[in-house]
Amino acid sequence: MEFSRSRLGAALWAASLLLGLAAAEGCGSSDSSTGSDGGATVAETDAAACPMAALLEQNCQSCHAAKPVAGAPMALVTWNDLMAPAHSDPSRRVYELVKLRVSATTKFMPPVGHLSAAQLAVVDAWMNAGEPNCGFPDKSDGTGSVGTGAASDADGGVSDTAVLEPEACYEVRAHGEQKPNDSTPFSVAAEQYYHAFNFKVPYDKDVKALTFKSLLDNAQVVHHWLLYQTNASTDTDGTHQNSTGTHSNDTLLIGWAPGGAPPSMPPGVGFQMPKPGSMLQLEIHYFNSTGKPQPDRTGLRFCVTSKPTKYTAATTTLGTELLLIPPAQSVKLSGTCHPSYLGGKDKRDIHILYSSPHMHKTGTHMTTVINRVGGGTETLVDQPFAFREQHDYPTPAIVHPGDTLTTTCTFENTSSSYVTYGPLTNNEMCYNFVIAYPADLLANPGGSLQGSDNTCLK
Fold it and tell me: Can you give the pTM of this predicted structure?
């Protein structure tokens, strides 16, 4: 399952990450500010003398700031930022990938709107001039605003802006034979059901994931996939079996649905992965209405590091499973998360990075708000929902001790029957999958989709 990071492999891997610039949805124009790390922003330069610097300020730096936010893997502020080795392909410079990404026709940056022809001409002119330093600020220590490895904090820990390169990447995919490392397609029956594929973790030392990528093979039959750490003694490497879609003893790691993209971790953050010797389970919800069996090799690729990261993130499920939606009615149903703080033993702030709303066909809108212990609320996510176009949103927020989170789902039932909670598409769900650090402070370890086992799912 592991593949080499040769020069060609690195180039292909870079392409799979959309040329290495994070798809930080919702990032666009930037307000002028001064970097807290001592580097001046482009707002303090002569924009007329350097239109490229002004373009980055106005269109990129709301996420690619001196201290990047919303999943952006690097800053785009100083000259050294642009000259640094690219996060996804160290054989290339950041400025080279900027040119490719802003000119792309799909998954372009900035995500809120493609640059105009005039703006693209500014990029071309700057590149044709040999990427001149036409007034860009230089970071005062001359090292650029992001590192290439673990840097020390004042307390001797790991820097919260350190950019780590993956040491290895692995794939887990649907397969046909009941044996490890099989590469034959799985034959999807002409019906709707869940199927689970079991894998022994492919690494032999403690690691954290830095990136995830969905590998959708047969779009006709795949509704969504979820990756779990499974604890069932009957799950052995290479086996697969039908599943119920419920996981009372398993831990949800990451997932994908149409329209979404599993997020990469920002600098300083690694995603919590199971220990060596553990079992992974890739569960795929199949919905094959073609009338005949279909082949499928859907799965995911994840890239990891064994180096220390400042923070460790994990997925927590917010929402409710207490769903009863009357026929021909519109209803709002809510669930409130009371963070566990590991039984009251840990009172650190919780940092939420991403939100991924998930409902089914009658779901139309989801809102999650943070109820502040001192009064008032702060909106985490407030977005319309469409079954065929499900999005992951960067939602940077901090939950303080004593705060709670309320998730409200809006349903429009146009049928003549009641709709209840369940794993099938004619059932309903009200889940907001959030990625947050420190791991496990929102909900007790386990991450189950069973409400009785999850302190954040009521």
Answer: 0.66
